[in-house]
Amino acid sequence: MPRRLFTSESVSMGHPDKVADQISDAILDAMLRVDPRARVACETMVSTGMAVVSGEITVNGWVDIDELVRETVREIGYTDPAMAFDADSMAVLQAIKKQSADIAMGVDKEGAGDQGMMFGFACRETPELMPLPIQIAHRLVERQAEVRRANTVPGLRPDAKSQVTVEYADHSSTAKPTRVHTVVLSTQHDKRWNERQEDLKQQVIDHVIKPVLGEWWHKDVIVHVNPTGRFEIGGPHGDCGLTGRKIIVDTYGGRGRHGGGAFSGKDPTKVDRSAAYMARHIAKNIVAASLADVCEVQLSYAIGVAEPTSVLIDCQGTAKADEEKISTAVRDLFQMTPKGIIESLGLRSPIYSPTARHGHFGRTAEKSASGVNLFTWEKTDKAEALKKAVG
Question: Is the pTM for the entire model greater than 0.90?
């Protein structure tokens, strides 16, 4: 059977769309600190010398959005006016209103904040139960940020993108990855590297790509670093950035399906976000329980209605038990109403800023510096109960 190539991409914290995501989630977290029951739908646009923050926010209290935007941009690394987008000189425009009373009416009764379908996915390719291509892609841009901040490679700037192609043994859903085929890494830089791209390529290979690939590195990996020949102009000056434009980067790199709704800037009454987190939690626990090698979960909702309109468990031919029994156990063990999801995963806390870069899934469930539980949907705390329930 012919081998298969599959590709996923990621983007750095300084990519313009991710800058917008991080601003939106920083605002969400700030509102939740003021009022854990805040309703937030925050959209951000960033471009040359400016950020525009808009959306619907209903909150008992308020925060200094202007300063919060600047703090977020500063933390990302846009502090040099030469990049034509920096924390101190940029303009911050606001156009924010309250949540629609018609929508609030249904959410007040603990119904879903909108209709839609959401997917969760898990597989055995990595210890995090994520597909290998997206995990490597995330770690590459995460490493680029570390190298940039440590000045290991002088002159790197915040904007970067990665793309990873992995070769699989065959076309089956359980095919194992056999090798990394191609790595693309584009990293913004200052003018010192404009005529020294080959030198920069070697620096990136040595300090970013090889350390991330580890045992997946081999001499035949095809590597492209800044394949256009230069990447001095980048960030929001190079491209306009918008909240919610990296939904495949945020999830499974194209390996699992996506319902279409973005995450960042949305409080947990928006099932686009909270139900996608629960779907991942369910899928990961099913695989962790060894009930399947691959699992995709679909949940769907009607606006104003608490119970999901459908729950689908698809193990893609890898189930080790009857899928009907697995589905019944899932309904018994996991809370899938908006209220149940919020309470069981602790989603009313200010936990969202870390999700806005380097992926929402495949992360470590841990406590923040302030003691808040992060990435709770990555826990496999229901695996043993699932095993027992399925028999």
Answer: yes
